[in-house]
């Protein structure tokens, strides 16, 4: 499962964030944050609570519009585009707090992720519904079945999403994000609230998404063991500012990261070594 020791992909950036700042009234959530994510990369964003991690994903996905700065997806400036438009350009997203339709089945929740792929041309609509609707529905169902098999949730496909245990609901939300057929997927704390076995399973799915399905992954996650084990590169935020970026080992060795994120200062580190 680990990608430790594997160099990050060196292809062109699929996501570029340039000097993004975000404010809410007098509160500064992000301050001039810039980074790039290359095609095929598994890129993680870490930082203490309140560091601005989810705010950054919201700027990338279109839920928030930056106060200043630009966001580029595959070289296109998407700063002013809606989340739905960004989805059509290949951007998928999961949320820190589950956003499933609790009254709907697992299968229907996943199908919702494909709504932007459905044809809705008003001129050809009548003819389409007479000739092609059934074929398109079957094609979408096949895609969804592939996702269900990949995430090993066939046994709950007809279950009402709101009745499922938390770990399975997180998996269903990942399935819905995959249904968008994204080239880049944003994962906001995909393992939050999970037990060890569930975390191991989710980490395996994320690595396989990246390596076998070819999806570029941008992930927020608090489990440092997982982040350092599976990420190609890591960026650290503190109070809305970027304080470090690089390979996992480089970031872990950064003194500022030790103080800001891990709560370890030089004196403590010296004491631990002496002991």
From TrEMBL:
<keyword id="KW-0547">Nucleotide-binding</keyword>
<dbReference type="InterPro" id="IPR027417">
    <property type="entry name" value="P-loop_NTPase"/>
</dbReference>
<keyword id="KW-0813">Transport</keyword>
<keyword id="KW-0067">ATP-binding</keyword>
<dbReference type="Pfam" id="PF12399">
    <property type="entry name" value="BCA_ABC_TP_C"/>
</dbReference>
<dbReference type="InterPro" id="IPR003439">
    <property type="entry name" value="ABC_transporter-like_ATP-bd"/>
</dbReference>
<dbReference type="Pfam" id="PF00005">
    <property type="entry name" value="ABC_tran"/>
</dbReference>
<dbReference type="GO" id="GO:0016887">
    <property type="term" value="F:ATP hydrolysis activity"/>
</dbReference>
<feature type="domain" description="ABC transporter">
    <location>
        <begin position="15"/>
        <end position="264"/>
    </location>
</feature>
<dbReference type="InterPro" id="IPR032823">
    <property type="entry name" value="BCA_ABC_TP_C"/>
</dbReference>
<dbReference type="GO" id="GO:0005524">
    <property type="term" value="F:ATP binding"/>
</dbReference>
<dbReference type="GO" id="GO:0005886">
    <property type="term" value="C:plasma membrane"/>
</dbReference>
<protein>
    <submittedName>
        <fullName>ABC transporter ATP-binding protein</fullName>
    </submittedName>
</protein>
<dbReference type="InterPro" id="IPR051120">
    <property type="entry name" value="ABC_AA/LPS_Transport"/>
</dbReference>
<dbReference type="InterPro" id="IPR003593">
    <property type="entry name" value="AAA+_ATPase"/>
</dbReference>
């Amino acid at each position: 499962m680990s990608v430790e020791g594997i160099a990050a992909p060196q292809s062109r950036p699929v996501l570029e964030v340039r000097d993004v700042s975000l404010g809410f009234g007098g509160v500064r959530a992000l301050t001039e944050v810039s980074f790039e994510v290359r095609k095929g990369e598994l890129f993680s964003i870490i930082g203490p609570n309140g560091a601005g991690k989810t705010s950054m994903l919201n700027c990338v996905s279109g839920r928030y519009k930056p106060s200043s700065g630009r966001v580029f997806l595959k070289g296109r400036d998407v700063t002013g585009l809606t989340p739905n438009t960004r989805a059509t350009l290949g951007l998928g997203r999961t949320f820190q707090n589950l956003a499933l339709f609790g009254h709907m089945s697992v299968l229907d929740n996943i199908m919702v992720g494909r709504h932007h792929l459905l044809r809705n041309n008003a001129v050809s609509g009548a003819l389409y519904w007479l000739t092609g609707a059934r074929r398109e529905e079957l094609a979408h169902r096949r895609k969804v079945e592939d996702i269900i098999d990949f995430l090993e949730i066939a046994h709950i496909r007809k279950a009402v999403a709101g009745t499922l245990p938390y770990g399975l609901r997180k998996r269903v939300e990942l399935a819905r994000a995959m249904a968008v057929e994204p080239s880049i997927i944003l994962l906001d704390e995909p393992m939050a609230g999970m037990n060890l076995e569930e975390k191991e399973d989710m980490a395996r799915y994320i690595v396989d998404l990246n390596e076998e399905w070819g999806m570029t992954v941008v992930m927020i996650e608090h489990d440092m063991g997982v982040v350092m084990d599976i990420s190609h590169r890591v960026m650290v935020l503190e109070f809305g500012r970027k304080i470090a970026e690089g390979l996992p080992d480089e970031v872990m060795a950064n003194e500022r990261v030790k103080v800001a994120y891990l709560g370890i200062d030089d004196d403590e580190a010296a004491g631990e070594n002496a002991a």
